[in-house]
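Hi R.,

As promised on Friday, here is the backbone we talked about, encoded as structure tokens. Could you run it through your design pipeline when you get a chance and send me back a sequence?
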């Protein structure tokens, strides 16, 4: 017979962890008298910490945190992580968070230069053959692109080489996707986004949200984008310098394409021949996304879009797949 005060109390549920495939042991947080308690040690560190998360109600969170603990502990043991290195890492991550603002996402840049953003993108967008390949969002989609009419210019500041971009949004099977939305943004001729130059260019410069016509077609006037370095004046820049890596990205235009019933696609169009196509700091280049921007004198296109000849022109087909 248990005393009343303990008989009515909720039982303490021991956490069960697998220490060895054939040796499941019972954990009880190391309370005195528990059966075969496993104490925290270098050998059993991951198992003990995993056990502390065993009652996580959300199974996906439990899976994520358990795997994270396993890999973190394995990493620390593999490299014999020192106290000073741990403190340096905490300081680095602290400063990474402190560098974030409304128009700068240093943590996303960190994910980008570590290749994690591209890896998650690959995992998340396993499209069928024939679909346009995705690539990272990047750190500069910080403001909503202003809606614009088909054929409008997105260049609101002087300078730059006049360029026409035409395109069409299709299904993988080739159906024209009427009314698809195409969100575009890019750097200017000096490699800067509007959010980096709020004193000199209007917000929304080199950004636009377009609604495709009945044939899924879109067009906009712009200027040639330039290669640019990811911002190097923060912790991510320190990391790139310390590891002797280039911070540059090849010239590109960002796209997000949306159509009802289809998976939203985030991708880039890279400029053929641009420097850094083979050393993109965020690993986003795919051969299928590289486009020529030839200098042309097409009088019919020039008349239709009010371009002075000659001008640069690129055409892109964006093929979406049905969402599940
Ligand atoms: Fe970019």
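Update: got your reply. Pasting your designed sequence below so it's all in one thread:
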């Amino acid at each position: 017979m248990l005393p009343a005060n303990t008989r009515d109390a909720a039982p303490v549920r021991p956490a069960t962890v697998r220490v060895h495939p054939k040796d499941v042991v019972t954990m009880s947080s190391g309370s005195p008298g528990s059966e075969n308690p496993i104490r925290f040690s270098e050998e059993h560190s991951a198992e003990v910490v995993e056990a502390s998360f065993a009652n996580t109600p959300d199974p996906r969170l439990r899976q994520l945190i358990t795997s994270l603990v396993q890999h973190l502990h394995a990493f620390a043991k593999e490299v014999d992580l020192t106290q000073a290195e741990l403190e340096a890492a905490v300081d680095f991550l602290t400063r990474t968070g402190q560098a974030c603002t409304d128009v700068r996402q240093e943590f996303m840049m960190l994910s980008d230069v570590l290749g994690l953003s591209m890896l998650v993108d690959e995992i998340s967008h396993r499209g069928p053959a024939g679909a346009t390949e995705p690539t990272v969002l990047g750190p500069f989609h910080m403001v909503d692109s202003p809606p614009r009419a088909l054929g409008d210019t997105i260049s609101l500041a002087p300078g730059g080489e006049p360029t026409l971009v035409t395109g069409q949004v299709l299904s993988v099977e080739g159906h024209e996707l009427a009314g698809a939305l195409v969100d575009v943004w890019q750097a200017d001729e000096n490699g800067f986004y509007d959010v980096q130059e709020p004193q000199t260019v209007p917000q929304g410069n080199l950004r636009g949200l377009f609604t495709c016509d009945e044939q899924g077609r879109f067009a906009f006037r712009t200027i040639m984008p330039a290669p640019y370095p990811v911002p190097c004046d923060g912790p991510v820049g320190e990391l790139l310098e310390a590891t002797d890596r280039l911070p540059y990205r090849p010239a590109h235009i960002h796209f997000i394409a949306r159509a009802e019933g289809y998976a939203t696609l985030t991708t880039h169009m890279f400029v053929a021949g641009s420097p850094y196509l083979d050393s993109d700091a965020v690993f986003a280049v795919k051969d299928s996304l590289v486009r020529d921007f030839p200098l042309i004198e097409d009088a019919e296109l020039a008349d239709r879009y009010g371009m002075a000849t000659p001008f640069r022109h690129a055409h892109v087909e964006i093929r979406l797949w049905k969402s599940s």
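One thing I noticed while checking it: The longest helix spans residues 59-79.

Thanks again,
M.
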